[in-house]
């Protein structure tokens, strides 16, 4: 009895950590609990029956702990299998995403090339159309200039002829032209 009292006196000398709380460290708590249970059973039990029941209790506790460990191991394996399946699915999805991304980039490149080609063709057609329009406008302007030059030349020639010609010269020119036409008729 003196040893038990001595232990409580020894506990009284422990320094306090500031407040009373729960110990959440499972291994330390289980060790303390088992020590207290074994101490109480030995102190109050002092008999073979109590030791057998203690042994039975410890065996039951051991079996529960082992079954809990087995269950935990099975759950861990199942979790690792699910994790591996999830990783495989993730890799597959990443590959598909990369494939879609690459297809999208190549589709964008194709569309860009098509747009550039279509724009180039349109520019060539516009350039050709512009050149044709310029050519026709140039021809039209040249024809207008020719017509005006011709009209001015004809008006100038008529003015010169009208001022220079008199009736006798006029008749002589007509007879010469008729003679030329008659000579051409005979040759045929």
**What gyration radius follows from the Cα positions, in whole Å?**
61 Å
Shape annotation: rod-shaped
Averaged pLDDT, please?
Answer: 80
Poorly predicted segments:
7-15
Distance between the termini: 170 Å
Given helix and strand content, the structural type is mainly alpha
Main sheet specs: none
What is the count of helical runs?
Answer: 4
Strand content: under 5%
Helix content: over 70%
Secondary structure: number of strands: 0
How would you spell out the order of helices and strands?
HHHH
Provide structural commentary.
- With 188 residues, the chain is mostly helical.
- The protein has a domain at 29-152.
- It has helices spanning 2-12, 26-45, 48-164, 167-187.
- It is rod-shaped and about 175 Å long.
Summed up:
90% of the residues lie in helices and 0% in strands.
Keywords:
single chain; 0% strand; membrane; ion transport
List the helices and strands and how they pair.
Blueprint: H1 2-12, H2 26-45, H3 48-164, H4 167-187
Helix pairs in contact: 2-3
């Amino acid at each position: 009895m003196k040893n038990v009292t001595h232990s409580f006196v020894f506990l009284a000398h422990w320094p306090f950590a500031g407040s009373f709380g729960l110990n959440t460290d499972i291994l330390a708590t289980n060790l303390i609990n088992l020590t207290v249970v074994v101490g109480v059973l030995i102190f109050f039990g002092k008999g073979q029956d109590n030791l057998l029941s203690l042994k039975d209790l410890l065996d039951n506790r051991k079996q529960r702990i082992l079954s809990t460990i087995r269950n935990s191991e099975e759950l861990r394996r199942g979790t690792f299998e699910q994790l591996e399946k999830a990783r495989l699915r993730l890799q597959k999805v990443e590959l598909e995403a990369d494939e879609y991304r690459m297809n999208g980039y190549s589709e964008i490149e194709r569309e860009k090339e098509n747009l550039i080609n279509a724009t180039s063709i349109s520019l060539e057609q516009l350039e050709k159309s512009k050149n044709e329009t310029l050519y026709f406008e140039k021809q039209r302007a040249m024809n207008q200039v020719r017509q005006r030059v011709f009209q001015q030349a004809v008006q100038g020639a008529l003015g010169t002829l009208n001022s220079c010609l008199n009736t006798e010269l006029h008749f002589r020119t007509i007879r010469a032209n008729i003679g030329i036409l008659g000579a051409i008729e005979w040759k045929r």
